[in-house]
Amino acid sequence: xxxxxxxxxxxxxxxxxxMAGSKLGIIYQGEDWILKFPKSTKGMRKTEISYTTSxxxxxxxxxIYQILGYPVHETKLGTKDNKLVVACKDFTDSxxxxxxxxxxxxxxxxxLEAILEDTVTDSNSVGSTSLHxxxxxxxxxxxxxxxxxxxxxxxxxxMIDGLINNNDRNSGNWGILRYSDGSLALAPVFxxxxxxxxxxSDEKINDMLKNEDRILSIAISTVTGYNIDGKDIVxxxxxxxxxxxxxxAALGRLAMGTSLMGFGLKGKDDSITVxxxxxxxxxxxxxxxxxMGNVKAYxxxxxxxxxxxxxxxxxxxxxxxxxxxxxxxxxxxxQAK
Length: 337
Hints:
This protein is α+β, with helices and mostly antiparallel strands.
């Protein structure tokens, strides 16, 4: 791989935001580019390397998006002041600017405001955003729903970020392009520097790759910057169905999983029903979610009392059972509480 020497490039005196490390605006081959530097790991816990590998992660993560056919910012690897850096082409200029979701979500319209007031309060943090609020904006915020492919792009990025372990997609690093003539368009995918475990040494990564169970655990435990209010879901289940502790845990988990699947539904009137029939004392568990993640739940036997398991935790497996069927049906409305 060829590394570009950026030491002689002229600075363009532009400042760029973000919290993942220092950035420098330069002019490369007559165009504006952003150099991203590795962040020192000093003060970070459980790190074995002196600097994060974020420039390399940005480059590889962005190229995976490109290989999959998505518009993505152009990246080049190089060196600056004896450090490995990634150069990202600035896709804005005097005629087009980036408007991030953290700005877009402040856009007001009456219908959207009413929906948001009835949902869990959205996080004011750049790093964490309610999925319920995102879906509401995708459906009712005219700055987003009028852009063809906006919703599909968001959910595709959720899936691909999970694939490449990019755990820092948040309200500050996706959005739209606003042109000087008033037109709007999808922004290219950018800011993939948190991909592939940037604080882990090569030796530890090699050890992880030799352990299939570890790889599977990492794949299904990907962290995202989006959230649902699971506490509210679980407390409502307990309040309505008067469930015992272990049944609350079992039905709450199924409800949250169903809610997450509901968010991925495209149609405003779509729904998804998940039913678990197993050999445990809870009997059947059924959950249904609409496309906004609003979920209803039902359990055949709401009160089950079991001793804690060998780890001192609620014995959810014992309550639900180990043998049975799990069915998922799209579009079937379920009217129970």
